[in-house]
């Protein structure tokens, strides 16, 4: 399946784009997405372990499966005070 990933904040800066499209195997998980992003865009490596992933507007964990028609958003943790 081909998925479209939207990047926000520092993830967008590191990716150098607002979005990317990646090919993932059917039944891929968020962990698979992180690995694929690391290969496709090595500049994201510093934020990948801590990056939040949302699927269809809900936070997702590494074991969660990504449906074929999902809207995926990636952004680093918010910091500050």
UniProtKB/TrEMBL annotation:
Transmembrane listed as a keyword: no
GO MF term list: nucleotide binding
Gene3D superfamilies: 3.10.20.30
One of the protein's GO biological processes: Mo-molybdopterin cofactor biosynthetic process
Keyword Cell division applies: no
Domain of life from the UniProt record: Bacteria
GO terms under cellular component: molybdopterin adenylyltransferase complex
Keyword terms of this UniProt record: Nucleotide-binding
SUPFAM superfamilies (alphabetical): MoaD/ThiS
Family: Belongs to the MoaD family.
PANTHER family, alphabetized: MOLYBDOPTERIN SYNTHASE SULFUR CARRIER SUBUNIT (PTHR33359:SF1)
Protein name as it appears in the record: Molybdopterin synthase sulfur carrier subunit
Annotated organism of origin: Caulifigura coniformis
């Amino acid at each position: 399946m081909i998925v479209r990933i939207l990047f926000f904040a520092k993830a967008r800066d590191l990716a150098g784009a607002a979005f990317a499209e990646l090919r993932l195997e059917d039944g891929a998980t968020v962990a698979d997405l992180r690995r694929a992003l690391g290969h496709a865009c090595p500049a994201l490596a510093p934020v990948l372990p801590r990056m939040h992933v949302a699927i269809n507007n809900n936070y997702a964990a590494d074991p969660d499966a990504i449906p074929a028609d999902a809207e995926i958003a990636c952004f680093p943790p918010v910091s500050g005070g």
